[in-house]
Amino acid sequence: MNPAEAHPDGAVPALLARGRALAAPALRSAVARLAPPMDTVAAYHFGWIDAEGRPTDADSGKAVRPALALLSAEAAGVPATTGIPGAVAVELVHNFSLLHDDLMDGDEQRRHRDTVWKVHGPAQAILVGDALFALAIEVLLEVGTPDAARATRRLATASRRLVDGQAQDIAFEHRERVGVAECLEMEGNKTGALLACAAAVGAVLGGADDRVADALEDYGQRLGLAFQAVDDVLGIWGDPATTGKAAWSDLRQRKKSLPVAAALEGTGPAAERLAELLMGDAKKSPEEFEDFDEAEFATRAALIEEAGGRRLAEEEARRQYDGALAALDGLDLPDGVRERFAALADFVVVRTK
Hints:
It is a single chain. By secondary structure, the protein is mainly α. The protein has a single domain, classed as Farnesyl Diphosphate Synthase (Orthogonal Bundle), CATH 1.10.600. The protein has 17 helices and 2 strands. Strands 1-2 form a two-stranded antiparallel sheet. α3 runs antiparallel to α4. The longest helix is centred in the middle third of the chain and has 28 residues.
């Protein structure tokens, strides 16, 4: 089946809307616990207010993780609302990572708005990120059941892996070459771990055993790798008007993303020329690198594509998509749940932002 042609009935918009609607009140309530000015800074980050503190009706993200957490509760045969604490906790950890990543990467824009560190300063970005992580643990433990403790353990492991992935990503920026296997390991940690947790946390809160939870985590892990492979393609070739990031965003940041790693493992003239250019780039100061014009980045993007990097990333996204669906085989899921998991997988692979 072609993902682009699957599930034409609006299943994904409904799942995402439900994720936002059910998780949003609890998320706002958790954020309101923060001491001023962190509560205001966090509200700005989530898109609830603008830089002057005025309420907005801005969308606060795709809501894939909350949607997965609620759906995973239904996979355990319990109401979707059972997964709300898990949805909130995962969303808090995700946004903790975004606050820190934006600062570490020097990103000035997210979702077409100035990032928190740009508006409120680096110190607030760090503090609010730390606070969101603490809130995530608090929200889950407050459920007060043995299953909540199991869910918290999975969230803690996923969070540690997420940080491992970010550390690997930063280390890669200072290396001339990164292998495809290394890149996939990093992306499995940085992106896959939290999506894996999201896909299982609601089921765990609903009393699912480890066999079911592990299979759902496997689905989420593979979904995360597919998501990141698509993100890597968009990070080089995405339309800034759609992605909200600068043109050639990942190349500007010297990221050794999957298309770059794959291109550098090639043996043709394009791979050799790309390696020469990137080795030269590594010797330049940040100021010199910032002076590059659009043609310089366009040249590198064209070489990556010619060397097969874009094709491999797109193929990896499809391979992980297939693996995610296969991970659900053998699970006795309630009616319609498997189809909704498949619809979310389709959405992750076929997107433009």
